[in-house]
Write a structure and sequence with these properties.
The protein is mainly α. The chain is built from eight helices and no strands. The radius of gyration is 25 Å and the shape is elongated.
Length: about 230
C-alpha cells in the first residue's frame, strides 16, 4: 500500500493572485471606456473626437491600473516581508516560546495537547519550515508564495486594454454610429460576466446579466450627461 494520500478533488485558486487584477482590469476597461465613449458621443457627432477620447481613455486607464496595482501589491508584499522578518527574529531569539505558541495554536484548533506539543517540536526542528508554519498561522501568508507586483501590473494593463479596446474598435474601423459600439460592448459585458461564472458559484446567465446591467446603466447615465452638456453648449 502506498504511503502517499490520494487526492480525490482539486480546488480553484481563491487567493486571486492573477484572477483579481485580470478580471477587474477587463471589466473596468470595458465599462469605463464604453461609458466614456457613450458620454462623448452624447455630446458630439465628431467621430474623430469620440475615437480620440476612447484612445485616451484606454491609454490613461491601462497605465493608471498598472501603476496602481503595482504600488498596491508592492506595498502589500513589503509589509508581509517585514512581518516575516519579525517572525524570523522571534524564532531565532525565543525558539522555546515560539514552539509553545505553535503548540497552543494547534490545541486551539482541536489537537490533543500532548500531540500538539510533539507536532510543534517536530516542526521546530527545521527553522525554515517553522517560519513557514508560523507565517501561515499568524500572518496568513506563505513566504515563498507572496504576490508579485510586476505580474499584477502587467495583468492589469493587458486586461484593461483588452476590455477598453472593444467599445473603441468600431470607431477605429470607420463606423460613425454609437449603436454598433453599444451592441458590441453589451455582448462583451454579458460574455465577460458569463466567463467569470466559471470560477464562481453563480450561474453564467446571472453573472452575465449582472455585468450587462452595471455596464449598461453606467453608459446610459454618461450618455445622458454628455447629451445634456452638449445640448447646453458648455
Amino acid at each position: 500500500m502506498s504511503g502517499r494520500a490520494e487526492i480525490h478533488h482539486e480546488h480553484r485558486d481563491v487567493n486571486g493572485g492573477w484572477l483579481r487584477p485580470s478580471v477587474f482590469g477587463a471589466m473596468d476597461g470595458l465599462v469605463s471606456n464604453f461609458a466614456l465613449i457613450a458620454g462623448v458621443a452624447g455630446g458630439s457627432d465628431d467621430t474623430r473626437v469620440i475615437a480620440l477620447a476612447g484612445i485616451a481613455g484606454l491609454a490613461a486607464g491601462a497605465f493608471s491600473m498598472a501603476g496602481g496595482e503595482y504600488v498596491s501589491v508592492a506595498s502589500q508584499r513589503e509589509l508581509a516581508l517585514a512581518e516575516i522578518a519579525v517572525e524570523r527574529r522571534e524564532l531565532e531569539r525565543h525558539p522555546e516560546a515560539e514552539q509553545a505558541e505553535l503548540a497552543q495554536a494547534l490545541v486551539a484548533k482541536g489537537v490533543d495537547p500532548k500531540l500538539a506539543a510533539e507536532v510543534s517540536a517536530q516542526i521546530s526542528r527545521d527553522p525554515e519550515k517553522a517560519l513557514e508554519v508560523h507565517a501561515q498561522a499568524e500572518l496568513g501568508v506563505t513566504p515563498q508564495d507572496l504576490p508579485k507586483p510586476k505580474i499584477a501590473a502587467v495583468s492589469s494593463f493587458c486586461s484593461f486594454a483588452v476590455g477598453a479596446v472593444l467599445p473603441l474598435l468600431p470607431y477605429l474601423l470607420g463606423v460613425t454610429s454609437l449603436w454598433l459600439s453599444a451592441v458590441l460592448s453589451c455582448l462583451a459585458l454579458f460574455g465577460a460576466g458569463a466567463l467569470v461564472s466559471a470560477v464562481t458559484a453563480r450561474s453564467w446567465w446571472y453573472s452575465g446579466l449582472r455585468q450587462l446591467v452595471v455596464g449598461g446603466v453606467a453608459a446610459a447615465l454618461t450618455f445622458g450627461l454628455g447629451n445634456l452638456i452638449g445640448a447646453g453648449g458648455l
